[in-house]
Please model this.
Amino acid sequence: MIPAQFEYVAADSAEHAISLLVSHGDDAKLLAGGHSLLPMMKLRLAAPELLIDIGGLTELAGVATDGDELVIGATTRHADLAASELVRAEAPLLAYAAAQVGDPQIRHRGTIGGSLSHADPAADLPMALVALGGSVTLQGPGGTRTVPADDFFLGYFETVVQPDEVLVAVRVPRRPGVPWGYQKFVRRANDWAIVGVAAIDGRIALANMGPTPLRAIAAEQALAAGASVADAAEHAADETSPGEDMHADREYRRHLARVLTRRALEHQTG
Amino acid sequence: MSHIELTVNGEKRSDDVEPRLLLVHYLREVLGLRAANVGCDTTSCGACTVLLDGKSVKSCTVLAVQAAGHDVTTAEGLASAGELHPVQAAFRQHHGLQCGFCTPGMVMATVGLLSENPDPTEMQVREALEGNLCRCTGYHNIIKAVLAAAEAAQASAWAAGIEESA
Amino acid sequence: MSILGTRVLRTEDPKFLTTGGVYTEDVTDDRLAGAYHVFFVRSPVAHARVNSVDVSAALDAPGVVAAFTGADLADQPVIRPAAAGLMNVEMIQRLLATDKVRFVGEPVAVVVTEHPYQGEDALELVEVDYDPLPAVLGFDPDDSSLLFEAAGTNVAGNWGDASQLKQDLFDGCEVVVSHTIVNQRLAPAPMEARAGAAVWGEDGRLTAWIPNQGAQGTRSGLAKLLGLEASQVRVITPDVGGAFGAKFGADPEHAVLGWIARRLGHPVRWAETRYENLISMTHGRAQQHTVTIGGSRDGNVAAYRLEIVQDAGAYPKIGAILPFLTILMTTGPYDIPKAEAVAKVVVTSTTPIGAYRGAGRPEATAAIERAMDLFAAEIGVDPAEVRRKNLLAPFTEPHRTAFGALYDTGDYAAALDKALAAAGYADLREEQKRRRAIGDVRQLGIGVASYVEITGMGDGDDTPPQENATVEVHPDGTATILTGTSPHGQGHATAWAMLASDELGIPVDKFTLKWGDTDLIPEGGGTGGSRSLQQGGAAVQQAAQELIEMARLRAAAQLEANAADLVFDKSRSAFAVAGDPEASVPLTQLAEDERLLVRAVFSAPGATFPFGTHVAVVEVDTETGKPTLRRVVTVDDAGVVLNPLLAEGQRHGGIAQGAAQAFVEEVVYDADGNPLTTSFADYPFLSATEVPSFELADMATPTTYNPLGAKGIGEAGSIGATPAVQNAIIDAVAHLGVRHIDLPVTSRRVWTAIQQAAAAGSGSEH
Model:
């Protein structure tokens, strides 16, 4: 219940955080909301020697427009993302996803940067980002790079973020008025999705159907080829090999993926 | 050790703490404010809920060092001059507590909810409290208490509005 | 105007709402100043030999003052199985495991640190060498891997004799249905996990602060575990954050705490994590039932058999005794001409089973209520109708069942009718029909469960069920009540004050209730089995009445009048001479020269039997299988209600726990005996979103067994709700050919059942 001992530094800028990451490498972790990292540390599943707190860097929070994209600061809290008028108008799927994370207390602390870096394939924001076809901006000692959502997640709790990089911003296309759907199948309110689906603009993303959020490619192609929503959804689980746990076996997960994809394509939320 | 300065229930505090000291333990063991309880290991139960800058948070998943420079309000800080806060009064009126272990967290989560959504529906109340677990009450009377507190706040705001315009 | 029967707000609440309850972890006491902190090393494997335990590295860690293993405590008494004589005597447990561990979570060693944050650091340094053995799991564990070699079997014992079951029990039945069903293992999971604090005094006595359900029982339990006389132990009960049956007596950890306190000559404290709580606080239920029910096609049940297997977990504790209560309530509220029941108790490499809200009686009700629905489905008769046909007729004289239970009063048909009416049963069936006809994705299910249960049982030995109370009036106008009950959310401070106030005319908020300190109250039965109001409350009322009579004599002397000429005016809390109100003396004044107190013991003639009917309405998403609980409508008749606010609260909490068992909660072990539900993220503790507001209909059939007319209400909700919700979910998909789904009826199980029924090709309308 109590983390192992560690040193703590409150970074005064992203550059400061990066320089600390450079000198400490794998021994250091970034801390923003702490609601992905601290639970792991309390269970002693993670034991970094140094926590670099970027939660106080207000320049890394907030939502702005940049041409045809929304730019969301990495330390923007889920609650603020969910309540943002701009996001609700132009990327409502993202605002909705943020509102599904955990519970109100968790949403007051958790950040989009932290959630994406944590890369839980069952989580809301990774799936939402993949559905939206957004991208992630990383800043390191050598400069900044932008990674598309489709390339960002590598495996269970694993992303392309290097040990000396800070995730500083998230970008999503502005799509005011474009219909979208979101389905999160849970046993109980606070749970991670047993299976999740987010769909917009011909893109379909699945949560908890593999080690990363997945695109339901076969279903997308069927749609693009003119299939009905019901027929396209039948392909939602093609080429997936979802895990098995006490909530669902492979077959049930695939079945849920198909049902939830159809509902998401019908622009239902739930 | 890290040095922190923060405000707790309106009082300025200055302490040296281990970085790994959880805010809930800072409140309970350093400050002796033991209303917030630890009920789980996984940020699930909400018995530790306090307000951080007016927003409900689970103090078991906030480091004391993260609260430096901020404002913390606990259940002990709600009542004033011996009078129960309206949310506390509503919980009493509607038997919204039995063993009391989840109660301070439940009350703080409610105060947080009503500051963001002053007129919630029953379903909104249930969803807003999904991070606060209770084994005793079946939630029935908790929901009633929250809705009553909201109604009372609406009524007094309405009355205050009348007074103002009078 | 009596306050009895009115909604008096709890006097406890202001404290709980502001500064919070003072639970064991919150206790500050001079005697505990500088206490060390105790942490347990627990087995990570289900079944293994323990080759060695090495604490040397831990002893070198910062802040570690001591570490102990099973070898250090080897001279302590062993823990013998419950129901000694019936359960295998070889199935013994030690305070800390020595040669073997038998469940994940079993305490193996302990470290003691100066600061609580040092404990988990030190635990990581303890090295234990385990030799894993095959796990022993399930309701029919074979003997190839024995949990106790000396026992030669994994069967702990039996209740009843299976060889005596009648082969011809179902002869003559037009219809016989049989099914093997599971009443799954649950975690009581009170919000406050276990904790303790202990210190030895210079007087050679152990003082222990322990959250419990009866300090007197905890004291004797602790004394026994440590080989002490009860007089050497004092138990103090702080506020308790819920218990639900799992905080009776004393656990090995509490005894180890006491042992360490003596060994180190220093106070110690302990607080378990939620992980430890979910794997080493006793679990509940874990019974398998083979139910066989037979009768005529028109719905009369002629015969019923219940064959139970109780998984007791690794060590036979209260779990081994639960089947006795299950068997006692086999036929529930029904009039079944022929019925029999037997039970086998097995041990498995899992957490031991203890009491959990209802303790053996929910199991009986769940079994027969499933059987009733299976029978109803087989004969194509409405399940409410089948129940009505078979319920015992109303009775006011005690009714003895074939299983030896003596039901005091009951009107089961009235409860059924009232619940059905409150639910709008006919309309619900219409709506269900409508949705079935159009093939609505969201189907409606209606489940009915009628129950009767036993409360206020007594200890089972020859003493009648009883409780004591002391009421004292003080000169300053306040009063104190000492009770042998042990409230942990039930509101006794308010309820007992109401009862005493009603006799003494002293306002409710002037009373202080004391409980749970064995030096102050050496005798008491605690709070559990829904006994407190009917025995403890009755004792308070009796003590208050006797106090008035004692006071009357003092008043007579003071007023120089005949005691017979005095009236006690409750509205003034004063004695006055009849016809001369001015000649009066306040009750409190009579306490000035000499203490004014009475200790009374109330004895009940026996247990009482509350009863009721629950109706649950669920919606099932037939595409995903997900059930959503829409309504729970209940009649829970526990006799005369003292405080409706408190009684309703008990019903709500019980209904929620019962519903949770029906559709989400379950302790899950993998094939190696590793628990998978080890946090509140995995163990699906219900949030407010999964349950609706409940609809309670009122019915009160008094008992004659106590002057309050009250039976016990605490467990009734959890007894009725589980089968009602289970039956409702199955009912929602019955038209698709589904006859049964085991508890918990999860989305996955519903979906699987729908697929299997479709594959079997039977999709008939009822």
